[in-house]
Specification:
Structural class: alpha/beta
Number of helices: 18
Helix content: 25-40%
Strand content: 15-25%
Radius of gyration: 25 Å
Number of domains: 3
CATH topology of the largest domain: Rossmann fold
CATH architecture of the largest domain: 3-Layer(aba) Sandwich
Largest sheet: 7 strands, mixed
Shape: globular
Oligomer: single chain
CATH class of the largest domain: Alpha Beta
Number of strands: 16
Length: 503
């Protein structure tokens, strides 16, 4: 059984590849995600297998996969054997499968399209989160019309192909039962709707809230923020206050009792669809344009001359085109995406990391308008990058655990970390090199202490606090981590670019 848009033709299963359980997949005992080489596999129990086969034969699912809105998926032939997970890849506590069990113990195995780079909702901009929410609701509405629902409503069920959101939790689909409410409603509110409300209604950044709690923002946390006239803001009365009071009222009521009450009240599939359409309308109304900052107009205010900019672009282009095409490039401190776009000409995929939410949101909206699917913009402070989160701090992998690139661009970044954030220069270099895969390249820019931008940062620091922030010290650190293959001093004389091969 093959579903369109897997992104590759059927091929042999890598039976000799090490089988590695996905640390973030254990909460649903009916299915579990594993990795085998470059393959993403989902093992299903008997009930989940029956649901999958009904789903694959439905009228709504294959078209959504073909359109790229759900990740490409195929069922592997029966009887394919896999090695047991390695001793170091123990399943999380609470899993119903022991660490030594192999995939044949499950009723069926699916193979999914691999997403180029896994990101988390607290790394997305406002517009990204809203587009993800709208795709989630679109898929749910289509499922309801065909007699299916989703068991989950989490933002973590979505990922990205560049600026195109894609739903990845195929195991979440299940046949719809009469009178059954959407089981994912609470998750949807806590990880998608409430964060959007914080931005649209209060102008607050939602990212710290989502990063702090893997389950998202609760109605109890939202309620105090929306009292008085704020209760009348779109969606607040229904999805915050009413939702919270219903939860408190039914705290001691079982799911089966709630389902029976809904059936008795005449709750139907049509009513569920109308509710989803109402939520779609609400989400489309929610908008937030982060206030502009100094960095929004960086290309005009950064102090580069035309000759500097031209020389820098030639150097970066040469560094990206010196070897085979890159699978992954990281652009750290991407700003308006100028060099991320350049990198996309030489790479399969580019992850553009920018600290400023306003800049990143503008970049996302621009890339989305261009239909760019090879550049993924992410909001992140590199002096405080995403840590591991969730169960045992591995359920949501840290940025450092996910980021291993063939080429890392760190342009006009070092001085912000070393001077602006007081990170010792050896730590900065070690961190940047750590993002480079073995055999990869670091393209890095050193802004000299006498450069206007560095001088501006130093003016806000005590005299003599950075005695080691020097070009010779920086070059020594680079040489300790790899081989400096090329360098260029820009015409201004206050900035130098380096191409470094990691040792």
């Amino acid at each position: 059984m093959v579903i369109p848009n897997l992104g590759r033709s059927p091929r042999p299963v890598p039976v000799d590849a090490e089988l590695r359980p996905e640390p973030g997949s254990f909460r649903d005992p009916a299915n579990r995600v594993f990795h085998a080489g470059d393959d993403v596999l989902r093992a299903l129990d008997e009930t989940a297998t029956a649901h999958w086969r009904a789903l694959a034969g439905s009228t709504f699912f294959p078209p959504l996969v073909a359109a790229g809105k759900i990740c490409g998926t195929e069922e592997l032939p029966a009887g394919v054997a896999f090695p047991a997970p390695s001793a170091g890849s123990r399943l999380p506590a609470g899993s119903d499968r022991p660490a030594g069990s192999a995939l044949p113990n499950w009723a069926a195995v699916l193979r999914h399209e691999r997403i180029p780079f896994i990101s988390h909702p607290y790394e997305w901009s406002f517009a990204m989160l809203r587009d993800a929410a709208l795709l989630h609701l679109e898929i749910l509405r289509a499922a309801l019309s065909a007699g299916f629902t989703t068991k989950d409503g989490s933002a973590y069920n979505l990922q990205w192909r560049g600026t195109e959101p894609v739903f990845i939790d195929v195991g979440s689909f299940a046949p719809l039962r009469d009178g059954e409410p959407w089981a994912g409603y609470r998750q949807f509110c806590q990880t998608l709707l409430y964060p959007l409300m914080l931005g649209a209604h209060l102008g607050l950044a939602f990212q710290p809230w989502l990063r702090a709690q893997v389950d998202g923002i609760s109605p109890e946390q939202m309620g105090p923020l929306f009292r008085g006239t704020r209760r009348l803001l779109p969606g607040v009365l229904t999805h915050v206050h009413l939702h919270g009071s219903v939860q408190r009222r039914n705290a001691a009521t079982s799911t089966s009792d709630v389902r029976a009450q809904l059936r008795a009240a005449g709750y139907t599939r049509e009513l569920a669809q109308a509710t989803v359409r109402g939520m779609e309308k609400l989400v489309r109304r929610l908008d937030h344009q982060p206030p502009p900052t100094h960095w929004v107009d960086y290309q005009r205010t950064c102090g580069y001359s035309g000759d500097d900019r031209s020389g820098k672009e030639r150097f970066v282009t040469a560094a990206l085109s010196t070897a085979d095409r890159r699978r992954l490039v990281l652009d750290l401190g991407a700003n308006d995406g100028r060099y991320a776009r350049l990198a996309a000409r030489h790479a399969d995929y580019v992850v553009a990391v920018e600290q400023d939410p306003a800049v990143l949101d503008r970049l996302y909206r621009t890339l989305r308008g261009e239909g760019e699917r090879r550049v993924l913009p992410l909001v992140m402070d590199l002096a405080d990058p995403s840590p591991g989160g969730g169960w045992r701090a591995v359920e949501r992998a840290s940025f450092a655990a996910r980021a291993s690139a063939d080429t890392v661009l760190a342009l006009a970044l070092v001085h912000h970390l070393a001077i602006g954030r007081n990170v010792p220069l050896p730590e900065v270099v070690s961190c940047l090199v750590g993002f480079v895969a073995p055999g990869g390249r670091l393209v890095v820019e050193f802004v000299h202490p006498d450069d206007p931008m560095a001088a501006r940062l130093l003016a806000n620091k005590p005299d003599g606090i950075f005695p080691d922030y020097r070009r010779d010290a920086f070059e020594s650190l680079l040489a300790a981590h790899g081989t400096v293959e090329d360098r260029l001093e820009l015409p201004s004389g206050t900035r130098t670019l380096y191409r470094v091969a990691r040792s």
